[in-house]
Amino acid sequence: MDYQPNVESRSLIRLGFVPLNDCAPVAVAHELGLFKSYGLNVKLSRQPGWATVRDMLSYGELDAAQSIAGIAFFLALGLSKTRRDIAVPLVLSAHGNAITLSRELPPESIRSGEGLAAHLSHRWKKSRPFTLAAAHRFSSHHLLLHAWLRRHGVVPGRDAEIVFLPPPLMPRNLAAGHIDGYCVGEPWNSESILAGTGWCPATSAELATGHPEKVLLVTGEFVNERRDDCIALGAALLHACRVCQDPSFRNELISILSKPCYTGCAPATLRNSLGPVFDSGRGNLDASDFHLFYGADLNCPTADKASWFLSGMRGAGLLPETTAAPLTRLYRQDLFRASEKLLLPS
Fold first, then answer.
1. Average pLDDT along the chain
2. What is the DSSP string of 2-34?
3. What is the pTM of this model?
């Protein structure tokens, strides 16, 4: 039976996102009319940061959101006062993050991080601690930053302080000297690099090759009460992921993301990591795998992808070693497979 969308029969879906390059599937699905093609009535809701996404999902003000995966565990495990039924029916992207350091930290000394510990021991002159920012305590950025610091002999909490800021605020805080670096998704690394205030010692593709990044989060009520809508939403966004991965679409993608309702960033800033070359502030790198949106099993919400986050959160001291999560109830391959069956041809 052919899939026959009927937008009028569908209730409104409130879909949140944060202005980053990897909100691309959400933006593309909206701009290309893919939500309507799958019979959906979707209202986008731009949010300033992940804490707001968490709160709006928790209080039922959003039905779904492009999100960091850590929020799923935060809500499902009841790591705040409120436990929330939540599900991940789709992985939206892999990679997409980088570490940016202030130009006051010389690239020739720090290199990829090998010289950081020695620099802090012998050349750090500021009256405050070496301070780095991440997007959220339960974000991949925090996990990647923790792992990078420890890999290079710098102990978070002892040698470095980590604070949390909404992604769009990081470049201006770096330029003002309030922080010394950060780990965040694009385009906010390129914003500092191209402005001459920062440089990149490592991308997340280098730090954790293949790591899952943003996911689609949906509330338990949305899954249980509107299962067909949930499956169709996954299909529309999976379709958008496929479009975003196509190199021939890259110029149009940059044009879409540059709109004020999405990132509002200059096309040159967006292009720096969307390819084909990434200016890291200490040389040019191949950007072909900086952002990944589609391919192989990238989009399937597997237990292995969930385990990557659990392991990283334990490594960062965010979860006790004994903490377990109902991975198959949280990462819903059944919903993903149902969405795959609805996927329309390119």
1. 93
2. -----GGGSPEEEEEE-SSGGGHHHHHHHHTTH
3. 0.94
